[in-house]
Amino acid sequence: MKRPSALKKLGKKIKKLLCPCLRQPVELDMSSTSKSAAKAVGFTEADCIKIKRRFDDIDFDLKGEISYGDFLEDINEARSPFTDAVFAMVDVNGNGELDFDEYIQIFLSYCMFNQDEILTFTYECFDKDGSGTIDEEEFRLLAKTVNNGAPTFPGNFGTALEEFDSNGDGLIDMDEFRELNRVYPMVLFPAFRFQDNLQKGSLGSNGWVRILKRKAKLARLEDYRENHKGQLPPVSGYIGFCSKLCPCVYEHPYNDVLEALADSSGGDPLEM
């Protein structure tokens, strides 16, 4: 099927902004695995619907899949070994296209990474031989491709390698890689920009702050339960009573994560 012209794409975007009431309702068809993964990291159904809208906007020919090229165009990124690794992480069948189940996995994985997880992922992308270290050739490829061919180093790659190779073995290990990022943050900035572009275009900065707070809350509660025989931290009798008597007015402090907690325990965590 012929792809829509740039003019048609622009018209669709304008209609989306000016006439949201004309947009088709979203059909959220997710596998049970994706639903469980979404709950586990703190996504609500509304969050998933917003991401589905973004997927539908990219899927101009309405075939239910988006190509690698369309994915990169949407986030204004050029193809590189780094973007290949991100795409391969979710392209389960390896056909070069993503259905919605595969697409949302990007937001459930890469978009949830903290800074160190992004560094680790980037490092592993270029550790081609799986040795746990990066040699000069791998280091050269990493610096060029991640930073679009213009790495911010004084002198040349050899000089940079010597600067961060603290043990003098001619290789960069993970700790040395973290030090590289601390001294020259712009070298790996595109890896963080990649995440930022995905987040802003889907749920917005505030939406991701809310999700990450919910994820942290889930982690704290699950840690507490592991050390207290499955029990949640106690709440005051007043709050507990009011939240049961009139939940529309008095919200239980764990309501936003109860479904995810129930999934992880196989029952209602408030009844344990």
List the helices and strands and how they pair.
Elements: H1 6-18, H2 32-40, H3 45-58, E1 66-67, H4 68-74, H5 81-90, E2 97-98, H6 100-108, H7 115-126, H8 136-146, H9 157-164, H10 174-183, H11 189-200, H12 204-226, H13 237-245, H14 258-265
Antiparallel strand pairs: 1-2
Helix pairs in contact: 3-6, 5-6, 7-8, 7-10
Q: How would you characterize this protein structure?
A:
It is built from 14 helices and 2 strands. It is an all-alpha fold. The longest helix has 23 residues, at 204-226. It is globular, with a radius of gyration of 22 Å. Helix 7 (115-126) crosses helix 8 (136-146). It is 57% helix and 1% strand.
- Largest β sheet strand count, sense and barrel closure: 2 strands, antiparallel
Q: Shape, please?
A: globular
Backbone structural class: mainly alpha
| CATH superfamily (homologous) name of the largest domain | EF-hand
Distinct helical segment count? 14
Q: Flag low-confidence runs.
A: 1-5
Overall pLDDT confidence: 78
- Round the Cα radius of gyration to an integer and report it: 22 Å
Intertermini distance: 55 Å
What is the β-strand count? 2
| Broad CATH class of the largest domain | Mainly Alpha
Summarize the structure.
The protein has 272 residues and is mostly helical. The protein has 14 helices and two strands; from the N terminus they run H-H-H-E-H-H-E-H-H-H-H-H-H-H-H-H.
